[in-house]
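Sample A.
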Amino acid sequence: MSARELHTGWTVRAAGGPVPDAVGAAALPAVVPGVVHQALLDAGRIPDPYLDDNESALAWIGLVDWTYELGFEVTEAEAAEERRALVFDGLDTVATVLLDGEPVAEVADQHRTHRIELGEQLTAGSHRLTVAFRSPVRYADAQSLALGARPRPYPMPFEAIRKSACNFGWDWGIATFTSGIWRPVRLEAWSTARFAASRVVATPEGDGGRIAVAVELATTAVAELELELEAAGERAAATVPAGASTASATLELAEVERWWPVGYGAQPLYDVTVRLRAGDRVLDEAHRRVGFRTLHWDTEPDADGRPFQLVVNGQPVFVKGVNWIPDDALFPRVDRARYARRLRQAVAANLNLVRVWGGGIYEDDAFYELCDELGLLAWQDFLFACAAYPEEEPLRSEVEAEARDNVTRIAHHASLALLTGNNENLWGYEDWDWKRRLDGATWGAHYYYELLPAVVAELAPHVPYAPGSPFSPGGELHPNDETAGSVHLWEQWNRRDWPSYREHTPRFVAEFGWQGPPTWTTLRRALSDEPLTPESPGMIVHQKALEGNQKLSDGLLAHYRVPRDMEDWHWAMQLNQANAVGAALDHFRSHAPHTSGAIVWQLNDCWPVTSWAAIDGDGREKPLFHALQNAFAPRVVTIQPRQDGLVAVVGNDTAEGWEGDLVLTRLGYDGAPLASATVAVSLAPRSSATVALPAEVAAASDAASELALAELDGVRGTWFFAEPRDSALPAADAAVAVERADDGTAVTVTASVLLRDVTLLVDKLHPDAAVDRGLVTLLPGESARFTVRGVDGLTVDAVAAPGVLRSGNQLVTR
């Protein structure tokens, strides 16, 4: 089989709708793979949609029909093959495909591959290929009328079209309403037979392993063929009877290495080649990289309910997770290098799992390949989010087709830990007044409980499946019951303060989070507001959450006063975001293994916006990033409130034991010890220990000026008896030293007074700067070393500037 990409020479033009005069109907060079926004940007016809209020100024794009065209040649060799096809790996979204002016396909699903068999229509010589897209907004509106409106959190009927839900806007996302050939397109020509699908499964067995391949064939063969499987220098083959539409083969390997999540071992991967032969001629070939591991989620009832415990190679894994959204609202702009940057940041934050949220996309192959290589477990939602979805045609068939395409595409990955039916729809059906509003209409239950599990059982029985997130296994309890399975915790952000996370001891947390603005450099690049204020026009456009700024203020007030200065406001909200999530993670981890993991909302952003992300839309790390890094460190010590008083919890998520003297101290803000005790602790690998603080350490005589400290081998946890705003925190005072280091610039901060949450906002020094740590609390006289990368020539004065060298102290003293 030959395959030739058709990516160059495309044009795009507006074919109908409210097109501004500045754009007109002229054909523009088109980016393929890409979306129409990229062509308009490249031609200078539109401003950057991510800046200021350009989002609303460009909403017309989603109301326009766009037509892509390409002239191309079919070679004599391609025409000589028995079969020819045009293959689109992704069309966004509703379109008519025409060849030489004649319709050859109607498509209506962004999330699937469209293969158009053309046969005699595609002869040698010149041809014109046209993809005529319909306005996604108008189509979705029409389908909502035809199928009946369903409950959803936002006005646009994203549930009525098989297109990324967040493309219509979300509480962190810009509405772009894209159209385009967003994934690769190619011309394929073949004779005799080809792979219609190929599925590879690697299974460890003792010291060895087995690789099994199952293929579906498109064939005109009148003679036997051979299916060949090759890996690790070994080969196996099976005979394929003439005319057979399926085949399988198995390869046994005597010795293999196990694949492990990051932090639990190495990630050896094995290259697998699958060939279809007719004698000495290779008809088709497929390549996969696999890893050998066992994986399941333990949901068997126990004394406390039903756990949701990930087990890999027999080893229980504490999940340190983060939710993932598309990394750019113009999806094709995310290439392998960008995936690599973002996922390496995830590893640097001590994460071991990334959940691909159901309102986005099935990510590119590069995403899952990098997860395999880095040891990041991948949890993939099927693409249903926060809404009731019609089960009628034409959506029903499209859902099955996209599920089959994507399960087949990603199921071989060692990193794939879970396929989940939807995001929050089971919860919504129970609690969000859907039952009354649906009035008997379908809402998606068939997909989550019947269709999707059947597809997974048929195509990837080795991959675990859950009907939704949150979900309570067993079917007896509410889907968001914290005694069973996974939960989402949003009351804290929406209505309550973040210390109330400590009221919950869930079995597994799949979503929770707190908002904060992007880094200062990202904010100033995106907004031209003068003056820039929390409520200036651009800030409001780039705050998508309902009453978002009010919730930011309400969530801060118990801890710090709301600053009047904009840069202080920015720091306060970023710090409170980090403190909220960090405190929650410390609490959840302190209850391991009862609580078996936590997945923070969210890792990344798709544009510059105030959101729950740890990494902003320009790829810069917010203080929240360091909160993840600290709370998910391999070894931690925290102080936690319990019913009977304060306790120190020592967590050891390493393969080595950990023992020593746990030093417990109560001291004043001046650093003077007021009481202390020492307790010998000995922890097995992957375990924790809880030690009650003695009364003399746990009780403050002056809450406003004292703290408790627990420390083992230099790993420290602190407990402040009073909120910062009610405390005697002194004015920030520190000495700074700067010196060149092999891995960047070493910045040493030495505290003259107690400093809470020392953080360097290094993007203010240079847009490309990054720092290795943050949120470091220092006692008087203590020092901390920070490594700054991406900028040269740092000076003490630049680093010590009060807008760069930040601490909680700056928000207390005035």
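Sample B, a different protein:
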Amino acid sequence: MKKLSKLFFIACLFLIFGHLTIAQQPDNQSGVTELYDFSVNLRADYGSLSRFYSIENSPERRQRFESFFKDQLSKLEKFNFNKLSTGGQVDYLLQKRYIDENLFELSVEEKEVNQLKRWVSPAESLYELERKRRRGLHLDSEKVAADLNDIAKKLKVATTELKKENPTFSRELTRRAERTIRGQKRALNSVYDFYKGYDPQFTWWVTKPYEVLDKALDDYSKVLSAQVDKSTLPKDDGSGIIGNPIGREELIRQMKYEMIPYSPEQLVEIADKEFAWADAELLKASREMGFGDDWRAAQEKVKMSFVPEGHQPEAMLKLYNESVDFLKKNNLLTIPPIAEETWRMSMISPARQLISPFFLGGETLQISYPTDDMNHEDKLMSMRGNNPHFSRATVHHELIAGHHLQGFMNNRNKEYRSYGTPFWTEGWALYWELLLWDMDFPQSPEDRIGMLFWRMHRSARIIFSLNYHLGKWTPQQCIDFLVDRVGHERANAEGEVRRSFEGNYGPLYQLAYMTGGLQFYELKKELVDSGKMTIKEFHDAVLKENSMPVEMVRAILTNQRLKKDFESSWMFYNK
């Protein structure tokens, strides 16, 4: 019995420590690469530091993160790049890209703050108070009150000097000044909220100087904002949409970051070619419906097929069921049962529909449709723009195999890869619109007109967003283009343009749909149409690699050996 007990104990130790050893090593089944630990620690350490050094634009935060990212770069460079697996090389390159981008942004911040040094320094001592507050040090309340009172006086002097000297700042410098003062105000609020009430002396001494300084910071921020060089501000062209065109140089820099080796002009040319294809297909569908070449009349009939008020959710459920049945029937990818089980619906508020006039997706399918308090014209435009034939093209985009399945798989596969990019997120979802068109998913010419509406819209997004950021088009011209060229309802077109330029989206977001979709489409031709993979293998493999630039997905799936000084060169459009 003693011998058996000893053997049992040894076996248990083997299972325990053997399991730990396996978990620490790269595993082919889970896809963990040699950079797993580095990547997990980088993300966790960044999160810890962000929560601790929370006052943006403060010297302390900037210096700490500059030190942090340089240290991470040093650790990264200790890996022998040439001996890494392909997945490890991809992780190396993408982590270096992330680090370099953060160091670049910190350098821009430092340069801009230094240019503003004279005007943002009066309240800098608030940073030190916040530093002491984080550790709960007891403060000399009388001295704090005097210091806050002194800062308010300095702000008054700075305001007088600003008005007297009347300097002008670029849009970028003005925004930096505003954010810096906002950070100083946040430091002040953090200190006051921590000690008030708990330290009677603090409350007695500091309350009034705090209130004066809190208002003084708000007033000073407004004075700084007024110093913007108005010639650098975008003008309201009558649309009421005021965005921030970034210019050609910054467009190219950001596209290089996203591994898109095309110029803005080349992408517009690609979009024009895709538009021409859609135009020809639209005329075919219009003729089948009996409208000849009057595609607007055919599209008008399709728009009028909207479902009655109150019935949009069940109409979307019907489209979803048809979409998923099609995916299963053609064995296009693996659909985990829980992913299919747990998606749900919500309705988008009227206010939010001003920015999001169509579907939004993910685990929750968010539906745009009129409510009783919307005016008559807006109700009709929303119903017409969300008719079932138009929506047929987007249900799979938002749910399965698009955004919902993407999120589901990202949470379960290589979740340490935090390389989020719209060219993967929106590109993958758009790719399914291209693929299902090829597979005759639309059942009628009306369905084809609905799918073509969205395909034209994706091309239009490239054209209008790039022309806007290049300074060639105004927001109103973008709206008119969507109405005249795609067939948008005007209110919906306004919502799309407002979403593009005033929503929380990066300058490349709108062009990422079609561009990323074309990347996946070309990769499918390279791997599936050539017979190297089945279509199900291809789709499952993409979803198991998590989000990253599509060229890096290609590198992994083709087992491409990469160079340490890699630069994007994949010309994925060959029409």
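Observation for Sample B: Residues 249-557 form one domain.
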